[in-house]
User: Fold these one by one.
Assistant:
Number 1:
Amino acid sequence: MADSKPLPSLDWDPVAAEALLRDVFGVVVDEVIWKGTSASEKVCEWKEPEELKQLLDLELRSQGESKEQILERCQAVIRYSVKTCHPRFFNQLFSGLDPHALAGRIVTESLNTSQYTYEIAPVFVLMEEEVLKKLRALVGWSSGDGVFCPGGSISNMYAVNLARYQRFPDCKQKGLRALPPLALFTTKECHYSINKGAAFLGLGTDSVRVVTADERGKMVPEDLERQISLAEAEGAVPFLVSATSGTTVLGAFDPLEAIADVCQRRGLWLHVDAAWGGSVLLSQTHRHLLDGIQRADSVAWNPHKLLTAGLQCSALLLRDTTNLLKRCHGSQASYLFQQDKFYDVALDTGDKVVQCGRRVDCLKLWLMWKAQGGQGLEQRVNQAFALARYLAEEMKKREGFELVMEPEFVNVCFWFVPPSLRGKQESLDYSERLAKVAPALKERMVKEGSMMIGYQPHGTRGNFFRLIVANPALTQADMDFLLDELERLGQDL
């Protein structure tokens, strides 16, 4: 008979594990939470790839290392990583650090469970539904469905798949051969995941019909109507319109009421990609930007962006109450979703999604909401709007700053015109030379580590900066600094 004594563990010493983790948490508090959020520290310490590889010593070897070496590894990883929690990080649609959300992320990682059945994630199954219910209520729905997805891109792809399945349920079994040529409609301002999703789902990017956007980047409903008729005349079957609330570059909000009218007349699924702008629903002052969103069939919303819930926290919300998610994606794996369990098997939500293992993304948002309350989160949103407006007004007072347009959201798009180009707008090469300014300034700020701002060309416009005001720790002093820093970095360009 086998010895019943447990085998000695080769790598699990609870005392040593506690000592390591306490030291690692100490490093995180010192290097990320304190230094990483301090304006007196660098946003990043830039290194070229080959040098960085050597500094990190990335090779994996057959022999393990000491605790001291592991702590040094952690310190090096933090040192050479970009501090997205830094008040001078304006580069992406996410920034800042909420301590309650971070606490939720730490607990989530420590528990290391998968959000697919009530038996292994009872707390999080109930919590996810409560959080989704709250988000749906803010959209304006008293019932519905939803799920947390691994990013807004996947939320958008789910919406396309659900709309297709609702219209052509045979496609789940028979695949593309069960489908006529399909057409979905969006603007060139949409997130690129719409095109990626069309390719990934087998529709092809040609199925994405581009609707005209106006000068501010908003969908033109009259052209949507025209494009639908054109698609039908060409033999395609329209099935979905993807509107955007908070476009990636300009921060535009499509006119949802008018778009919903078109969708209602034509019998089309209306999806609203509010991954960026959805959090504006918390603000009584600004939620009018999303008027009509309650008429959508599906909504994508990323609280990890403007609410600072931490990556990743991406919700797909549905108005549907017919279990469409499970009907579309379910495969009834008998080793997970046994129907004779001792509890209500409706609590096993794993068959709603295409994944099997699914990380818990609700706790960080739930814990942050518990701490801040809806009022605290509303104040966070309103503050971002106010600082974006302050920045835009300050730019108007300074020579060399030119707004691309008045910001409607917290995306502030602008050119910095260095002294050498001022007053030379009539020169034939002005636009070409101006387009080189943002990349040059970006290189300088990153290599100095003073701040990070994104830039891009857009349509016929040459490169301009897109600055995102989202970090809840930002102040007017940070806005003033970035203007001063751009002037300093760009004086000799």
Number 2:
Amino acid sequence: MIALGGKMIPCYTVQRNLACIQRIVGGVRWTSSCRPAPLLTASPVRALIDDKISIRGHFLPPRCPVTVCAQMQSDDGDLWEAFAHFNTNLDGTVNLTRDPSVGGSYLGCEPMGLLWGLQPAPGAEKKKVETPYVMLMSLLKGHVSPSERPSTELAAVTAERWYMAPGVRRIDIRQNGVVGTLFLPPGPGPFPAMLDLWGMGGGLVEYRSALFASRGYASFSLAYIGHKDLPGPQHRINVGDPYFKSAFQLLQDHPQVYRDRVGIIGLSFGVYLTLRLANHSDIKPSCLICINGPAGSNIKLADADGRTEQMENDQKYWTYDDQGTVSFRAVSLPANLSPESKVELDHLTCPLMYIVGEDDLSASSIENANLIEETLSAAVKSQLFTRLSYPGAGHLIEPPYTPNSRASLWSVKPQKLVTLWGGHLALHAAAQEDSWKKILEFMETNLRH
């Protein structure tokens, strides 16, 4: 019993009457006895990084402003955030698959905009593929910028984004001097496979290989520079052609791999290594995928096997903007590549897909795609070449629904360098989604049939 107005009233009566009182804030009725509490849902709540998810808000007042915010911590502990402003529909819902954002990190109807719009993401990469990204998504009252001022949270939900599907196996490889990580799909195999080569950032980048294995392909991510288990010094490439051939053959010879169904994928300087390896007469890949990289090098080779001297020899081609941010784009212009380094592709017998980001500020991708196409045409092999070209896309075209950074920290020593990658957020995201679909189709055609 509760004393109210001099009378004793049963508690449940007070609670029932309070539940029927509508609280009006700023002219919008946010709660009532007829409407459940606001709800935010994400489906599925556990998915691979390249799967779409559906994000919806329910039980809201009609035609009211709301903000949907996504937050995620990177492996380094940095907080990434994206948000979008919506106006609810007459039925009191908001559906990111259907409804346009009217402000925030992106505009228009972009079902995955909260994921690819995450910022900041300076040079970020997923280092621990065995754990998911955990996305915290919040439904907020009004059109707000969450990081700028306090806001009222109406509902929240978490979702997990994985690179490794259940049952995928991750195997460290340190064999005959070869350093890398092998990912195998669930099951006994054998599987078609990809050798995975990245750029001059160095180390061992695993997430693309993990995702390939999640889609049914064995994939071997190979280190070749800047790794503690490779010969030093770490600022230059100290392995040559025999190293890359050994890695390809190691993958071919694995008992759970179809030896005649092995392709190679390279990004940035990894494109040059991909082409160089594929042009050896005793290496027979089933397909090549090249993303924004050169067909040669202007880095002076220390020997015929491809080992390099100092990596800074190309600095005369570096350009800087008004903020001192460096672009490496001119380094790989065909005119600046040493003639002896340009891969002739005379031994190439397999299909080659080249992916171009037309806003690439780190490599001369359009010019190198032209050079490769001309080289294959001269060798009467133009039927092997496929080009995908994306306006507004930058250098780092990666798996879809992941954020892009137009510039990021490249090095701290001997000097701090921030480098330009390029890419406009929405156009780059569209390129990643479309190119990933076509990469998987290309692999399906050339590795499974």
Number 3:
Amino acid sequence: MGHDQEEEETPPATPTTTASTASNDQEEETWNHQKQTLVLELSEKLITGDLQAKIEAARDIRKVVRKSSVKTRSKFAAAGVIQPLVFMLLSSNLDAREASLLALLNLAVRNERNKVNIVTAGAVPPLVELLKLQNSGFRELATAAILTLSAAAPNKPTIAASGAAPLLVQILSSGSVQGKVDAVTALHNLSTCKENSVPVLDAKAVSPLINLLKQCKKYSKFAEKATALLEILSISEEGRVAITDSDGGILTLVETVEDGSLVSTQHAVGALLSLCQSCREKYRELILKEGAIPGLLRLTVEGTSIAQERARTLLDLLRDTPRGKKLASSVLEKIVYDIATRVDGADKAAETAKRLLEDMVQRSMELSINRIQHRAASCTPDKIPSA
């Protein structure tokens, strides 16, 4: 509704088609005039009406925008609705706050300029206040709004500096499934802001992120964002300690190395490498204990170029006697032999190493087949919003 329909082919002009085209153009012009009138009427009602009139106007704006084109969103913004809707977010009336929040959310979707104008109009502080409410519905609407607004690069520094991130981390533990997805995506958006003077996340985010990563498919878009955040957190000592202290923290990263997408495996091996590089004596045995070797060996062949390099470096650190050089394919057998020696002793090392290598090849084949079957069987739409 309200969209110009494109025709793949223009038929030869005949009196009939010419008349039909003229009729369609007239109908479209009439509809556009009616819609422009509606935009102006609702804008006027929002700007000059009493509180109840403003609430009704905000609800109607949301309804119109939901069913309309990007152009309609721009027309409402040009008519001056953004600033009064932001003011309504500060109202003590919860109906007013909800109506304005939903209207702003719909105005921002798929419209970069509106996203920036909403933040410029001062929407972020009242959204942060909504995140502090006990009302879960308001908290999750505010999370969705911050997610949408944080997709615009100019907005990221303002949102990152607003104190929203710790409140989004709380949603990771207490929100609905959609609320958690929105919070992870918003935090991921904010983590890519180069202007941040301080880290967006602290170690408190590790435990809920690990728990969410345990529950999701390791090759999903959600897992890619969660592992990206965990890799960032692994840079700090507090983050590394939190990963180690989280129930199944290292194991979950190892499983992601085995079963993840190209993106999530790269982030997961990056986090494990950060751990081992920070203190090899502390983390080497913890990583080996979770069975990391087969996945890392496969990653040296199947991962992205960055993941392959990280996997080789980590495998070199996991050896009994690292030589300070990067791992080449020719020494993979040596690594396995070192492990076999530690497990079964020097007498049986050769036999054990051969069996381990065979098991790794078999495991790699099974993982590849399982991954293909999972993707073929998965027919549910991606939960991650595109905004």
